[in-house]
Structures are given as C-alpha cells and as structure tokens.
C-alpha cells in the first residue's frame, strides 16, 4: 500500500540531529530519508519548515520568514514543504516584507501549506497577528498545519499549544482548513472533539512516540498507552480526517507505520496512510504525478 507521510522534518535543527543520533538512530539526511521512503513505499512526504539562527536556539525568535527545509539547498523532489511562520517578526516595521516573502514562497509548486508552531512561539493561534497568514492560506487554497500538545523544547508554553485553541480559530476562519498535529497529545480527547465538531479541522497522528525499536516495543505493548489514543479515535469517529505522519527524524518510518497500523482499524488504513492527504493538501496530486 502506498503511503504519504504528511509530517517530517529536514531542517538544520540541533535537537533533531541529537534525536537522530541518540534516540531514533536514523540517518538524518535527505539520502537517509529517501532510503526509508523507498523501503516503506512512501511516495511523498511533507516537510515542516523551521530554522534556527544559532545552534540550540529552536524555537528561534530571530528566524526570518518563511522558515523552510534548510538541511538541503532545495526541497528534494520526493518532498513538499509547509512554510514555517515566525510570528514574532510579523509585528513591526518589517512585517510587510516578511509577509511578501511568505506569499512569494507559497506560489512555488512544491509548497503544500503553512506551518504554525503554537506553543513554541507564545501567541494563541486566534491572535490577530496571524490574520494575514490565514488570508494567504485562503488566497492560495492551502491548509494551515498547527503544532498542538507537548512541545519538543522546554522553552515552549503549553497553554498556547492546547488543541481547544483551534476550535475558536476554526470558527473564525471557516474558509481555511486546519490540521491539528500530534492529535493534541496529551489532550487527545479535546483534539478529537475539535475535529469532530469543525468541518474544517483535521488531525495528524505524528510524533506520538519518539525513539528506536526497544522504545516503541515498550509503548506498543502497554495497553494503557495505546488505549489513550484509541479512545480518542473511536470518540471522534472521523477516520477520513486523520492523516499519517511520522515526525521523522524523531522515529524510523517502519516503526512508526507499524505503530499507527496497530492504532487504526484495518478498514481505515488506506484512508489514513494515503487517501486523506489528497483531501487536505490539494497540491500533492500534481507533485506525485510529476515524480
């Protein structure tokens, strides 16, 4: 079965390099990612743009917009990109320049959407600072992907990353589609309700486990851990709005696919692993056709 991995990283972020070496044991390079794609029948990935200006600064308040996949000189042909947004640079004398650069980038065919790092950056997603971003999303018919739940940095603030904040945003911006990353973990029931209530909200199942095979085996064999997510999926009952993502390099793709196959009932696998991506990311069909 072909797979679309809608949540990976390919940026020069110190914590990602460390995780790849110490925890997930993956080759954090474009070549390493392509090898994992080929091994697991992944036909396309979507990378979440993010940058840091100095080692270990993520989330970096000085990073210029748009943030991209800067581990390579360009976006590899087997990937698309969600442009990352640093909201701290959208309020000031250079805000218009920042927005112009974001808009110019969104016109590139490899751009699949926009990524907000809620929690990492200390702004609620419904704050007015993001209004021009949602206007661009509507103009170019691309979704807005939102980090929710636990942050991979102690400098994040969880109140900004709670999935319930997306409910107010979805109500305000009915003309834009949104994706809740990581099913809002640990607030998965709240995320499930936001998805079920709002026709313009989806969720991905990425980043729920970080590490190598021994780590995955420990959690996949813990019923309480697995039921934590299954309960939310059953409650939401919208498998057509759930998407597969790994959050690579936080986990090897084969292990993560095995984990999600255990979570999601088999009759929904084709939707979650492949079909649902086309509904949320309209530009991927043309990208896949060009491969």
UniProtKB/TrEMBL annotation:
User: What are the residue boundaries of the Amidohydrolase-related domain, all occurrences included?
Assistant: 71-282
Database matches in InterPro entries = Amidohydro-rel, Metal_Hydrolase
Keywords carried by this UniProt record: Hydrolase
One GO MF term on file is: hydrolase activity
Protein name (Swiss-Prot/TrEMBL): TatD family hydrolase
Species this chain originates from: Paenibacillus dokdonensis
């Amino acid at each position: 079965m072909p797979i679309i991995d809608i949540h990976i990283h390919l940026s020069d972020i110190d914590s990602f390099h460390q995780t790849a070496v110490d925890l997930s044991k993956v080759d954090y390079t474009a070549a390493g990612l392509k090898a994992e794609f080929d091994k697991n029948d992944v036909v396309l990935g979507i990378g979440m743009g993010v940058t840091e200006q100095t080692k270990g600064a993520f989330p970096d308040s000085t990073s210029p917009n748009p943030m991209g996949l800067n581990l390579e000189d360009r976006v590899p042909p087997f990937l698309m990109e969600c442009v990352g947004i640093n909201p701290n640079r959208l309020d000031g004398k250079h805000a218009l320049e920042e927005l112009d650069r974001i808009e110019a980038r969104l016109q590139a065919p490899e751009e699949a959407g926009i990524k907000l790092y809620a929690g990492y950056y200390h702004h609620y997603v419904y704050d007015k600072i993001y209004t021009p971003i949602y206007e661009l999303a509507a103009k170019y018919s691309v979704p807005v992907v939102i980090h929710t739940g636990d942050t991979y940095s102690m400098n994040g603030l969880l109140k900004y990353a709670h999935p319930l904040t997306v409910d107010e945003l979805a109500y305000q911006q009915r003309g834009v589609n949104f994706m809740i990353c990581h099913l809002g973990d640990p607030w998965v029931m709240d995320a499930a309700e936001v998805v079920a209530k709002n026709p313009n909200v989806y969720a991905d199942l990425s980043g729920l486990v970080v590490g190598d095979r021994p780590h995955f085996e420990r959690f996949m064999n813990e019923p309480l851990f697995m039921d934590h997510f299954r309960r939310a999926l059953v409650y939401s009952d919208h498998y057509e709005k759930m998407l597969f993502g790994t959050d690579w390099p936080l986990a090897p793709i084969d292990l993560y696919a095995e984990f999600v196959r255990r979570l999601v009932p088999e009759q929904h696998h084709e939707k979650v692993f492949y079909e649902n991506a086309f509904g949320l990311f309209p530009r991927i069909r043309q990208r896949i056709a060009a491969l």
